[in-house]
Amino acid sequence: MATISSLNVSAVTYFSVEQIIVTWTPTLNLCKDDFIGIYFVEIPLEKACDYFDYEFVQDQQSSMSWQMINLRRSLEFRYYSRDHNCTGNYTLMAISPNIQPMNYNEPTHIHLAYGDRIEQIFVSYLTNSSQYTPQCQYGLTPSSLIFYQNGSTTTYTASDMCEGKANTWGPQTFIDPGCMHTILLEDLRPSTTYFYRVGTDAHGWSSIYSFTNRPAKKDESIYMIAYGDLGLSPVEPGAKSTIDRVTARVASKNITCLLHIGDISYARGVGAQWDAFMTQIQPIAAYVPYMVGIGNHEYDHKTGGDKDPSGAMGPGGFQPEWLVTL
Description:
It contains three helices and 23 strands. The chain is 10% helix and 31% strand.
């Protein structure tokens, strides 16, 4: 069993996607499956496997870097090691100070989508509160956001979900998803670049982003990126390289829009994984409309079909023979 005295952190507050460094003194009695996990502070200390995420500790390792996601709650790191010569149950060896978001209402998950008409764009984002009316300020230069539009807010709870993990509360199942804000921008000029930010004076504003509206002429060239089956890095192989390549393309070329044709995040009812996925795509989706289709992983419930907003027939969703037998 490992023996360490403390877990230290480089910061106790953070903004989304900032790094926190966790450090400790290397142990001479490392078990091969020692790990450091990140936990909601309310999780009992004996629940070693009820982490949000974790990473195994390597021999002589003394630090880890974690990219933080704003989950709108207090978190802590814990070091666990097995007893009885590394074959027994996990025992808590050390725990970090509590860490929490610098701003629980930091605008996150910022993403764009097309409206029904050429002159429309939806701007969406997430915070922890519905107390104030969400707003988007926008304009033709980043220093002159002279237009604004208010939006609406919604959320959902575990009882709204169809089945399984999605309607059970827990760090690896359903968590409070926060408040989702949507704002419709109208009367936008075609083929015109706009700069914008979202938020409120009371809760704070996002950084300034930009988008170029779609062209009006049907014969005008457009540049679209399309892919499917994109999960969360590093859980799903290939996700990081895809995100890196698409982010670079969006930054260097006037991409008109992106189409994610289905199988989005592979969260499978794990609410915090949706937070991680939306954070992962924000460097893309905040700049180009991120349009989505329904894949089988968005439609593979067996019960709870009455809660399916698509109005599909039957008590369950997409259940082909090959899926049932997997």
